[in-house]
Task: inverse folding
DNA sequence: TAGCATTTTGGAAACGTTTACATTCGGACA
DNA sequence: TGTCCGAATGTAAACGTTTCCAAAATGCTA
């Protein structure tokens, strides 16, 4: 079959122990034999078997990333950030998406056991119960965008609430007061946080103005539907809980002959690549996704090899307001 | 440390063999003992060690994907397609990017040995030499977007040449004859194929018209620079080798006050998500990326478990012309 | 040259599974 | 009641490494 360390040992006329030592750069082996072994190994195209190696060393040099989905720019960026940081440390990346039931997610998680040194977990099912049931206690884990109170695991997530507050403040600062909001899926934690920020900031920045909330689900279609409602109700500005809905809304406004921002301002959330190419370019909150991925991996590495006084971290990453033409100060109605 | 099969065996008062049989659903075990074992295993939260298991079974239930990079919509979609098909078959995905030297790529490849059942390889370095040196002969491999003549491995790639031909034919059909081309990086195989298609189609569809080629490198900036040249030279249409350059070009045309397509038509290649949201929406060639990923994985599965009469496949996936406003028939100069 | 310290090498255990083979255990049948 | 048979279970080898420990080889000093 495949060439093993035994084959190399036999060909070199030494024991497997010596081959192992030579190949792993230990110093207790004569330069002469080391060279001979290296030469033979190269000639035979010997490549060590990862499974066997990690079985004995209890290290896989691999981290797992369990994500709810792989669709869209968000996960793409996240994976890129994770991969970037992993490569720098010589780690590999075992990804798995599991947009299914908690059980399915648990199965995916279980299958990673013994193949990864640690886990980056981002899952809508990842509550205390789930983790207690499916997560092996010995597996270092970092929770991404998944809130959890107990300091059991490190976690890192986006400051959705703060970002929404900032955006409302910005719009209010531009002179808009009747600001509508297009919400995300009700069960989505991030969507709820953004809504909460909107509500809070409205109460503070635009006192006396009744919050105006359109239901949505993060899709372009939902944004379009909300946009049609906005055309009828004429808020001064619309703040969509994500950019895709802002895009849908923008289309609806254009169809109705409204000019943005002159007739109605518009803002989104996420700063997807498309945002700056829209007409007009979209004001939005930028999420440093790749950076979050990098930080998550760094925290995971820390959890895998805990230093002297290790404590889990709980980060919330700030978002950045990106002002573009869609929220320029317009005519105050 | 972690709970092993031995712990379960001891707790259940049986041998490890019985535990293994019970857990793997073999039929030669009494329902009574099976149940007892299952219960104890659940109680102890036993989860089999993947490394140990794959060492003995010689199966990892994992495929590797070695990509040049993880940046951008292309790889995101590709990974999604691969993951989709992998999940359907209960396979996991070990991804690795290696936008570095051939040696680095080789090292990444080597590290996958023993951890994957097969490999999806997409690398600019993947020529015959490279494969002979770094690829273990026993590792089933599918080459993605990487041309290779010998039928050693299955391969799947995009019909870049055909796509470019189709686009030129479309533009010519719209009445444009002086069609310029913005090329990609000279060393890039896909870019070269698209250029070749442009040249060939121009000779056939627009005889007598000298091909007009602007240098580019697939970036928006390069597209902008080329667009500035186009403003001066006034071809009737510009065909960019990818959408990002088309976007840059579009910006340059707008800055110069040119209307698209009235003053100059524009087309791209790739159909990135952004393309349909531009003003005007961009005509482009759609690449079924996710589908390619799925197909690649399916071919890999075939190579891993070869049926009776297995032969490597060499697919080229057709691209699809997506006509939008940027290439509408304009005024013939 | 003998004795000792040190370096280099080899033998074998260990990692956690699966599985071929041997063993035991019931029970049916003569 | 003894024999035989099939099913259930246990024993141990195997997978390919790394590493502990013992053994051998080497160099040095007396």
Result:
């Amino acid at each position: 079959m495949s060439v093993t360390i035994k084959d190399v040992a036999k060909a070199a006329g030494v024991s497997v122990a010596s081959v192992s030592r030579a190949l792993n750069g230990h110093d207790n082996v004569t330069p002469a034999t080391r060279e001979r072994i290296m030469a033979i190994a190269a000639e035979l195209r010997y490549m060590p078997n990862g499974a066997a190696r990690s079985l004995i060393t209890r290290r896989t040099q691999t981290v797992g990333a369990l994500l709810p989905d792989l669709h869209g720019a968000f996960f793409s960026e996240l994976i890129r950030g994770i991969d970037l940081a992993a490569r720098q440390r010589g780690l590999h990346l075992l990804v798995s998406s599991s947009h299914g039931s908690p059980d399915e997610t648990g199965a995916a998680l279980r299958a990673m056991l013994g193949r990864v040194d640690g886990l980056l977990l981002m899952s809508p099912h990842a509550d205390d119960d789930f983790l207690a049931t499916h997560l092996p206690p010995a597996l270092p884990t970092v929770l991404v965008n998944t809130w959890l109170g107990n300091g059991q695991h490190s976690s890192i997530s986006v400051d959705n609430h703060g970002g929404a507050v900032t955006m409302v403040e910005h719009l209010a600062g531009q002179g808009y007061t009747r600001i509508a909001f297009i919400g995300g899926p009700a069960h989505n934690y991030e969507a709820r946080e953004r809504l909460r920020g909107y509500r809070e900031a409205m109460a503070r920045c635009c006192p006396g103005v009744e919050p105006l909330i359109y239901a949505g689900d993060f899709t372009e279609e939902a944004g379009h539907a909300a946009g049609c409602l906005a055309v009828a109700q004429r808020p001064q500005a619309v703040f969509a809980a994500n950019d895709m809905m802002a895009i849908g809304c923008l289309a609806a406004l254009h169809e109705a002959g409204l000019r943005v921002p002159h007739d109605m301002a518009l803002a989104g959330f996420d700063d997807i690549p498309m945002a700056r190419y829209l007409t007009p370019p979209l004001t939005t909150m930028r999420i440093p996704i790749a950076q979050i991925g990098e930080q998550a991996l760094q925290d995971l590495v820390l959890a895998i090899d805990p230093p002297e006084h290790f404590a889990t971290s709980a980060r919330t990453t700030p978002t950045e307001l990106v002002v573009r033409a869609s929220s320029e100060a317009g005519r105050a109605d």
User: Anything to note?
Assistant: The radius of gyration of chain B is 26 Å. Residues 14-18, 21, 28-30, 33, 52, 54-58, 114 of chain B lie near DNA strand D (CB under 10 Å from a C1').
